[in-house]
Amino acid sequence: MQDRTSKMRPLRKLLMTGVAVLLLATGAARADEFVVLLQEDNERPSTAFATMRMSCAEALESHERNRIAGTWLMYEPKGGGKSKRIIWIGCLSAVSKMHCPPETEQVCRAQ
Questions:
Q1: I need a labelling partner for 47 at 20 to 30 A (CA). Which of 18, 68, 87, 109 fits?
Q2: Segments forming the whole domain that contains residue 16
Q3: Cα 109 from chain centroid?
Q4: Helix (H, G, I), strand (E, B), or coil: what is residue 39?
Q5: Cα-flanking dihedrals φ and ψ of residue 76, to 5°?
Q6: What gap in Å lies between CA 82 and CA 68, rounded to an integer?
């Protein structure tokens, strides 16, 4: 099982990047829309589409600053609900590095 999971990780990242590029290239998404991996507490990450008030470059730079500092950009659901960490951002031309908290590194990287 571990061998199959390790082989699927690069495929999932490639798929997420492809989806982001396809949506933006076809005009189905705007430049301020992103594919993100979200994590609440120690749960498995989930995929979502999010609109942010920043460009792709600004979002990736902000994510990288937070990753290096050991902090996270946070996703606030519309209509309320619990905030979630943004652990990965995908947009038209680039993606962020995966940024998981140490206590969930193994579960997080399995995505």
A1: 68
A2: 2-109
A3: 12
A4: strand
A5: -105, 110
A6: 24
User: Full-prediction pTM beyond 0.85?
Assistant: no
φ, ψ of residue 56 in degrees (nearest 5)? -60, -50
Residues contacting residue 9 through CB under 8 Å, at least 6 positions apart:
109, 110, 111
Q: Which residue do the tokens 């950009």 mark? A: 73
Which phi and psi (to 5°) does residue 34 adopt?
-135, 155
CA distance 34 to 51: 6
Alpha helices in the chain (DSSP H): 2-25, 56-69, 105-109
DSSP state of 102: G
What is the SS3 assignment for 27?
A: coil
Q: Going residue by residue through the chain (111 aa), what tens digit of pLDDT does each one get? A: 445 555 555 666 656 666 655 555 544 444 577 889 999 988 899 988 888 888 888 888 999 999 999 999 998 888 888 899 999 998 854 566 777 888 777 777 665
